[in-house]
Amino acid sequence: MSAANETILHIDLNKLEQNFNYLKAKLNPKTKIIGVVKAFAYGHGDVKISKKLEQLGVYALWVSDFEEGLILRKSGIKTKIMVANPGIKSYSKIIKYKLDVVLYNHKLLDLYCSNKNEVGVHIKFNTGMNRYGFNPNEVESIISKIQHNTHLNLDSICSHLAASEDKNKTDFTLKQIDNFKSISQKFELLLGRKIDKHLLNSHGVLNFTDYQMDSVRLGIGLYGSTTDVNLKQISCLTSVITQIRDLERGDSVGYGTSFIAKEKMKIGIIPVGYADGMNRQLSNAIGSVFINNYKCPIIGKISMDSFAIDITKCKANEGDLVEIFGDQLTVSEIVKKINTIPYEIYSTLNRRIKRVYSDS
Questions:
Q1: Could you confirm whether 255 is annotated as catalytic?
Q2: 3-state helix, strand, coil in the chain (%, to 5)
Q3: Which of 96, 116, 175, 255 is catalytic?
């Protein structure tokens, strides 16, 4: 650990391995695992996380765009990399770095048909989320184009579940699964062979294991923020108190003077702000941190690079360690306070935060 860094995201690769193995144990032995490492591996550092998943025998890695794929290739990753949104302008880079593409409309499919370089292809269908994906009635035209362009190595077809984490929407998820099954049957019949299929995400594996098909895509489950208590949060965000101030009754704190001291009190300043990913909705006692096992509320509005906490009842000194999230306060607990999801907390963590990895 660098002594120069005050704010650090500690990442436990051993917990990542435990989560991987726990989810893998729910799968059939032949089911392949695609590790989702988009958005800087949900803020945890895509290269380190990908190298660990590669060691664990992951079948493929899932990224959002070609630049994320390039970073992994240039770092020495040899595993198959699937680019979920390859875009129109990135063709040459994708071919050069041997990335697979997920194709979801005819404009992309036609681009890869017209250029005759070999490339791994995955066809995505819309089954109810209404985001990316071909419509079910486009199966015939897709297969016709693929069969007339043998340089397209068709590896799989896939779709994406919209509400697999919500047990109150089981009927909707089952409808999506049925839609994908119908698409898959028609696709394989017209193609004349079996094709790999993947639909389940982390919550899909936890709640709809019977529909795992040939592969699954694991994202948030690997990082440990789900409702399953067996999956452990792999990261802990800490900082330090950089200044302590004594306030008199009537003193204000922060922008907009949104906090006014009702009595004499002591506050600590933490060098983390919304530019680092500290959600501003945690301002004014919505959020809290832990110092020396004591819960200290956030007071005033979170600034770009800092926030204040009430340490009146806490024995604290400048330089003391502050846990923003970790063992005492999980990301899953934090998001409930501000009506968001763990994905947002993780993915907005600025890269200027030092990442420190352990693998014991």
A1: yes
A2: 35, 25, 40
A3: 255
